[in-house]
Every structure is written in structure tokens, then in C-alpha cells.
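Methods: holo model generation. Sequences were used as deposited, without trimming of termini or removal of tags, and paired with ligand SMILES retrieved from the corresponding compound records. Each pair was processed once, and we did not select among multiple samples. The sequence and 2-acetamido-2-deoxy-beta-D-glucopyranose SMILES for this entry were:
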Amino acid sequence: MGKTKSLSFSFLAITCAFVLHFQYIVLAQEHVASSESEALGLTPETKRETLEIIIGGGGGGAYSPAPSPENNCPPPPPPPCPPTRLEKARAALLKFKSLINDPKGYTNNWNNNTETCNFRGILCGTFPVDNQQAVAGLDFNQAKFSSKDCTNIPLTGFTGILDKLEELTFFHVNSNNFSNQIPEAITKYPFFYELDLSNNKLSGPFPNEVLLSTKLVFLDLRFNFLTGSVPSQLFEKDLDVIFINNNQFSQCLPANFGSTPARINLKVVYLMK
Ligand SMILES: *[C@@H]1O[C@H](CO)[C@@H](O)[C@H](O)[C@H]1NC(C)=O
Ligand SMILES: *[C@@H]1O[C@H](CO)[C@@H](O)[C@H](O)[C@H]1NC(C)=O
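and the model returned the structure below.
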């Protein structure tokens, strides 16, 4: 009795296990099948159609070989036009925008719906070298730009903008958070006349790049953190305006002060210390 009981119990247990296992397999298969058709977005009808087309396709079930590549080469695409000056400037400006923190929304209209020349703060003009339209000036005065992490924006390199637009005639960015270096590139810009970097975060020694910028007539570096001496060459340059007060220069007036043709704001120079 006890033996029969235990036997039938184990038989039942095995059967149950087998049935459960079998059901599990069936369920698993159904699940795979249904999720596959779900994934393909196919109803059973479309699945069948697809199958028929695959089996019977190619005309009478014959296997049609892939067309030979010689017959099917598209004509080579024309070489891409080099980007225009405006296109290059637009790319540089949009990249600059993506890297800065713009608390006043100054660059809000710098987007796909706005022509580059209508971007706020952008002045366009004809670049005399090749008569192309180009970005001739940037005016971000009072925009209070900083970098994305609310630190300074280096003027050169990854976040640079002044170093990417050789067509610039002016760069007016007072009251922002730009820091060194002033790019050496400006010394080669053929029509670069005005640099206003007042009330920014320039530090370290006087930026000699401005001395080498041949066309510069207006220089405003007030309210920064420049240190050391002011090079005497600054006063030999043919600048109309030099503002360098409210820095941390450590030097008396250079001996040649007074030889400058610039209409120097005297107060500026006396406030150098
Ligand atoms: C602007 O255009 C670019 C390139 O065509 C595209 O990748 C980007 O998603 C567009 N941006 C918006 C905001 O529409
Ligand atoms: C950026 O500069 C503006 C004006 O100089 C200033 O008010 C602001 O606090 C600065 N922002 C940062 C993050 O330094």
C-alpha cells in the first residue's frame, strides 16, 4: 500500500514536472514568436505575405543574382563646394553658443530659422579680399557670457571665437567673462581695427598680440586683472584710443609716454597702478 502510494506519487510528480516543463517550452516558444512579430510590427497576414513573396519572388521562383556592380554604379558625386565664409562663421558661432552660458538670452535667435547675418550681435559685410559676404564684427557688449560651468571663456582654442573669424573688423565684448589668451591670429587679420575687452577676466602680463595687430586703432582693456609692466611699444603704436586703467599693472609711466599719437585718456594711464 505504502509502496503503491509512493510510486504513484512519484509518477504524478514526474508527470506534473513533464507537463509543466512542456508547457513552459510551448509558452516560451509562443512568447518568442509573438514578440518577434510584435517587433516586426507584422500581423499574421502580412507575415504570410512576406513569406510568399520571399519564396515565390524573383519570377517563377528562380534565384536572380545580384546585379553586377559595373552596370549599377551611380555617377560619382560632384566634389563638395568649399564652405563659404558665412557658412564657416555660422558653424563657429553655433559651436560657440553651444559652449557658453548665456544668462540674458543674448543668442536666443542664433538658430536654424535665422540667417547668420541676422543673429543678434553680428554685423556682416563684404570681405574685400574675395568680395564674399562675411561676419565683419561681433558685438556682445554687456552679454555677461561665461562658460557652461560658469567659469571664464578662454578667448583662444576650444571655446574661442575671436581666433576663428579672420574677416573681423571689430570685437566688442565688454562686460563678459572672457579670459586669456588673446589669439595670435588677430595679428594676421587684415582689417582688424577695434578690440574692446573691458570688464572681462584677462589676467597675467600685458597681451603683446595687440602690439602686433597692425590695423588696430582702438584698444580697451580696462577693468581686467592684467599685471606686470605696460610695454613701451604700446605708446608708439598709431592707436586712436587706448584704455588700460583699472588693471593691476605695477609700473610707472614708460619714458616714451607722450610720444603716442593716441588721444589718450590721461586719467586712464594715471590709474594704471
Ligand atoms: C538645426 O539643423 C541641424 C542640421 O541641419 C540639425 O541637426 C539640428 O537638429 C537642427 N536644430 C533644430 C533645433 O532644429
Ligand atoms: C560674468 O560677467 C558679468 C559681467 O562682468 C558678471 O556680472 C557675472 O557675474 C559673470 N559671471 C560669472 C559666472 O563669472
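DSSP finds five helices and 13 strands in the chain.
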